[in-house]
Amino acid sequence: MSSMHVHVTGIGSYLPERTLTNADLEKIVDTTDSWIHERTGIRERHIIAEDQMTSDMAVEAARIALDDAGIGIDDIDALIVSTTTPDMVFPATATIVQAKLGGKDFPAWDTQAVCSGFVYGLAHADGMMRAGMFKRVLLIGAEAMSRIVNWKDRGTCVLFGDGAGAVVLEAREEEGGVLGSVLHADGSYRDLLKAHHPHPGASPDAVDFSIDAAGVAAVEMKGNEVFRVAVTKLGEVVGEILAHCHIDEDQIDWLVPHQANIRIIQATAKKLGMDMKRVSTTVRDHGNTSSASIPLALDALYREGKLQSGQHILLEAFAGGFAWGANILRWSK
Fold first, then answer.
1. pLDDT tens, position by position, 266-296
2. What is the pLDDT of residues 95-150, one digit of tens each?
3. What kind of fold does domain 5-175 have according to CATH?
4. Which of 22, 150, 261, 288 does the annotation list as catalytic?
5. I want to staple 280 with a disulfide (CB 3.0 to 4.6 A). Which of 18, 207, 297, 322 is the partner?
6. Which of 14, 6, 101, 5 is nearest to 299 (CA)?
């Protein structure tokens, strides 16, 4: 068994300049600010610019994370991008990010577990780094969710936003860092939350889902059913990751959950017996940024100076698929 431990040594995030408030959405679809906020906790979300791609947001977050770690792209051994909204079918968005950052000749690939993508990506990186494959990995969660929602569907379009978050991971002999991960998936739930790509040869009208007549897929969700399963599965995985890492509930200093819905976040905090003051919540201003939401929420804590060495941080997410999971970190930066 390797004696190496995987630590976060740099962190960064990026949000597009354009914001779309609930009041703005009232002009687009039959909804109200109070209806959205009461059910989701969301007030606004950021929307990618027309001339931007997912890779562009990933690059901005990555540059900040690399600078925070005090290293350059040439010091990276592997690059992972977690995304549901890649620039194109192939090549992997990670390779595009690699090129834009000026890197070359190291492995770069995408991982896709929707909103659980960052949790999955962190587990993947941790395992490979402990096995001695890589010393430093750049892990990014980046999403342009506004390009795959149906802006005529008031049940889903109000939920999502765009952004990117990145961490630099480094294998060290020093104890701490990633203490463990738990991952799950159950494809039998797939019809409750999904996004279809249009069939080949579809007319432009068939893919006209975005605010500005762009977009190539549409999210479909049976909200009440997803909520019930999410609360149950997240409650279970919280207990599982605590047992896996041999940590008690009262040892968790911060909960950094996927930012899908404030009510789901509150239910998970209640399961842990945690005051909401110890929960990173960015859903109000970001909406659901899928795999970008956890690194964005982690960076928010970091930039506010709230993370202290030795603190235990629990990351957890639930996603379409269904896929869900959790990681625990002992902060050492």
1. 998 998 899 999 999 999 999 999 999 999 9
2. 999 999 999 999 999 999 999 999 999 999 999 999 999 999 999 999 999 988 88
3. Peroxisomal Thiolase; Chain A, domain 1 (3.40.47)
4. 288
5. 297
6. 14
To the query of whether residue 261 is one of the catalytic residues in this protein, the response is no
Q: Which of 5, 7, 46, 115 is catalytic?
A: 115
Identify the residue whose tokens are 């930039």. Answer: 303
Which residues on adjacent β-strands are paired with residue 46? 19
pTM above 0.90, yes or no: yes
Compute the C-alpha angle 57/71/106, nearest 5°: 70
Contact 215, 148 (CB under 8 A): yes
- What tokens does 280 get? 């990173």
Helix (H, G, I), strand (E, B) or coil at 332: coil
User: Can you list the alpha helix ranges (DSSP code H) found in the chain?
Assistant: 22-26, 33-40, 54-69, 93-101, 117-130, 223-244, 262-272, 283-286, 293-303
Instruction: Supply the CATH classification number for the domain 179-185+220-330.
Output: 3.40.47.10
Comma-separated ranges of CATH 3.40.47.10 domains in the chain: 5-175, 179-185+220-330
Ranges of beta strands (E only) in 30-135 are 44-47, 78-82, 108-111
Catalytic annotation on 115?
yes
Name the catalytic one among 46, 124, 258, 312: 258
